[in-house]
Structure prediction request, 340 residues.
Amino acid sequence: MSQKDIIILGIESSCDDTSAAVIKNEAILSNIIAGQEIHKIYGGVVPELASRAHQQNIIPVVDTAIKKAGISLQDIDAVAFTKGPGLLGSLVVGTSFAKSFALALNIPMLDVNHMHGHVLAHFIDDEGKAKPKFPFICLTVSGGHTQIVLVKDYLEMEVIGQTIDDAAGEAFDKAAKTLGFPYPGGPLIDKHAKLGNPDRFEFSKPQINGYDYSFSGLKTSILYFIQKQVRENPNFIEENLNDLCASIQKTIIEILFKKLILAAKDLKINQIAIAGGVSANSGLRSKLSEIGIQKKWDVYIPKFEFCTDNAAMIAITGKYMYKNDIFADQTVTAMARLKI
Prediction:
C-alpha cells in the first residue's frame, strides 16, 4: 500500500439498518448491511427495538466488513460514523462504537451528516461510471427527508428546497399502508405501478412557493379517495390495485420533478443527480433519464446498493473530511436533528 492510500471504516446506524463499509480512496472494499425484520409486524420502525438490534448487529457487521475488505485493523486510517440526523437511540449505538473503536486503535474520528453521505455516494468508484461535476443539483429523497441540494463542492452544500411537512418516502409508505401493503410498502407500490395505468386516477397536488415541497395534503387526498371508493365497492382496491399504485407513484414523481426542473432552470445548472432511499424507485429513475434527455441534463443515478442507508456513503464522505482535516473528538454526541 502506498502512502497516498486512505482507508476509512464507515459506520451507519441512523435508522433500522446496521451497516459497516471499508473504503480505500474512492473504491469500496466492502459494504455490509444487516436489516431488522422485527419492524414489519408493527408496520413501521420502532425506535427502541431498532437501537437494541443495532447493539446486537454492530460488532459482527463491522467484523465482517473488515474481513471481507481483506485488511487488518492497523490498515485503518480513521473511522467515519453517522452523527445524525436519525433515530437518537440508533445513532448513539454507532457513535459509541466509533468512539471506542477510534480510542482503542488511536485513530481519528469523522462525524458524518447522513444526508451529506447520500449526496456524496455519487463519488464512489463504480467501474468508470461518470461522477457529477460541480456545481450540481441533487434531489435527495428518503423516508424522512425530501430536499433539493445545491452541491458546490464535496463539503460545501446548500439546501435550497425541502418539504415543509412530510417526506416523499413517507407519502409512499402511508399510501401503501392505505392499500393494505405490509411495511415497507414503497417498493411494493413501485412493483405494482409497472403493471398499471398511471393516468387512471388523479390526486391533488400542493401549491407551494419556491422550491419547497408538501406531501401531507396528498396523503390525505389518497386516504379519503380510497375510503370513499371502498365504501361504495369493498373490492375496489383489489380490482384496481395496479392502476392505483401507478397513479400514486406518478403523482409523487410529478410533484418532485416540478420543483427540480424549476431549480435547474433558475440556477442554470444541467448537472442533476438523485439520492436517498426513494431514488431506488424505478419510476423516479426512468423519469429522471427521460427529462434529462428533454432538458439536455447530465443525469446521475446511484447504484441501488448506494440508494438506501449504507456505510459506503458514510465512508466516502469521511474520506473527504479526512483529506480536509475535519475530525471529531471524544466529546462528540449523536444528534437526531442535524442540518447539512
